[in-house]
């Protein structure tokens, strides 16, 4: 199949998974983006990928076929019937690496979306992109908001598999639902100057949790959907009080926080002042959700951390669009 264009621009939002109680299921898209441009080579003998990076990861990310965007793009092109070709990838990275803001999900969604845009006319088929992204990532909670925007609740329906022509068996049971987020709700993300790998954070989790802790999280995760869209709830409620309770957690944060004491301290301080703070993804970023303008008040609570030079903060809206592409 020949490509329908020679150049594609992709814009993918950062994401935050879990939101406290929604462990491994809930994700939120943030209005903070990586921008990537793919230009196909006009030389039929050129099969190489040339990678140009500025911003986050410019000094650490690979610039060859092992780059996650490149390997994902190659895989998706093959899936969509495009022949292998050389290309230039120009990545303008804003999303921090290994901090819990969905950098790997962004890379995967970017690569697939670009391949789709090169192989199809018209709008993106987000369901196709989500399914392949979840398959590559191995779980859907971060890729879902990157694809659809807003807040998503995702799950895996085990037992749904498909065998490809080459004999590869893939999981086709990834599912997600996209929820409306009240436009008053904003996110403050505190980004530290240290990293935490997802594998280490995952290894800290116990194989079993107490039954009462599971029930606790079920109640908070159920409340979270309403707290993020209070217009769906009858009666008058303090939205920020709902957010504070809905983001309580007993499944993962208490086990991971010893790996990131500064993050744990900041979360405790924020919550003591009534702000719905939690670990962003696997950490070590700290996410604070709030309805209404509270940027100055949030910064005041974290004044010592910000003054230390080890933290910076982004005050962000919720991204409602998800991944965007333009054929150039």
UniProtKB/TrEMBL annotation:
Keywords: Amino-acid biosynthesis, ATP-binding, Cytoplasm, Kinase, Nucleotide-binding, Threonine biosynthesis, Transferase
Catalytic activity: L-homoserine + ATP = O-phospho-L-homoserine + ADP + H(+)
Subcellular location: Cytoplasm
InterPro entries in UniProt: GHMP_kinase_C_dom, GHMP_kinase_C_sf, GHMP_kinase_N_dom, Homoserine_kinase, Ribosomal_Su5_D2-typ_SF, Ribsml_uS5_D2-typ_fold_subgr
Keyword Plastid part of the UniProt annotation: no
Entry annotated with the keyword tRNA processing: no
Domain GHMP kinase C-terminal: 243-301
UniProt domain GHMP kinase N-terminal: residue ranges: 68-150
Its job: Catalyzes the ATP-dependent phosphorylation of L-homoserine to L-homoserine phosphate.
UniProt xrefs under Pfam families: GHMP_kinases_C, GHMP_kinases_N
EC number: 2.7.1.39
Protein name: Homoserine kinase
GO molecular function terms noted in the UniProt entry: ATP binding; homoserine kinase activity
Taxonomic lineage of the native organism: Bacteria, Bacillati, Actinomycetota, Actinomycetes, Bifidobacteriales
GO biological process per UniProt: threonine biosynthetic process
């Amino acid at each position: 199949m020949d490509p329908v264009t020679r150049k594609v621009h992709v814009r993918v939002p950062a994401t935050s998974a879990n939101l406290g109680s929604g462990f491994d299921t809930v994700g939120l898209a943030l209005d903070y983006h990586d921008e990537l441009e793919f230009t196909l080579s006009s030389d039929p003998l050129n099969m190489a990928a040339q990678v140009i990076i500025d911003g986050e990861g410019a000094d650490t990310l690979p610039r060859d076929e092992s780059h996650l965007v490149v390997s994902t793009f190659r895989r998706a092109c093959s899936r969509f019937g495009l022949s292998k070709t050389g290309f230039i990838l120009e990545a303008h990275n804003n999303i921090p690496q290994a901090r819990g803001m969905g950098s790997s999900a962004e890379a995967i969604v970017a690569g697939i979306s670009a391949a789709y845009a090169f192989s199809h006319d018209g709008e993106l088929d987000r369901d196709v992109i989500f399914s392949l992204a979840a398959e590559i990532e191995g779980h859907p909670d971060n890729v879902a908001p990157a694809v659809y925007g807003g807040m998503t609740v995702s799950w895996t329906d085990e037992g749904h598999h498909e065998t490809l022509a080459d004999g590869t068996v893939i999981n086709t049971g990834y599912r997600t639902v996209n929820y409306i987020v009240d436009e008053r709700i904003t996110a403050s993300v505190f980004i530290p100057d240290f990293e935490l790998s997802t594998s280490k954070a995952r290894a800290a989790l116990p194989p079993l949790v107490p039954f009462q802790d599971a029930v606790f999280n079920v109640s908070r995760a159920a409340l979270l959907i309403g707290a993020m869209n209070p217009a769906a709830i009858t009666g008058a409620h303090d939205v920020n009080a709902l957010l504070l309770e809905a983001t309580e957690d007993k499944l993962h944060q208490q086990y991971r926080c010893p790996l990131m004491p500064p993050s744990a301290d900041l979360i405790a301080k924020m919550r003591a002042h009534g702000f719905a703070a939690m670990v962003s993804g696997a950490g070590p970023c700290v996410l604070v959700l709030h309805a209404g303008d509270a940027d100055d008040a949030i910064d005041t609570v974290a004044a010592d951390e910000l003054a230390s030079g080890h933290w910076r903060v982004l005050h962000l809206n919720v991204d409602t669009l998800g991944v965007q592409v333009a054929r150039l």
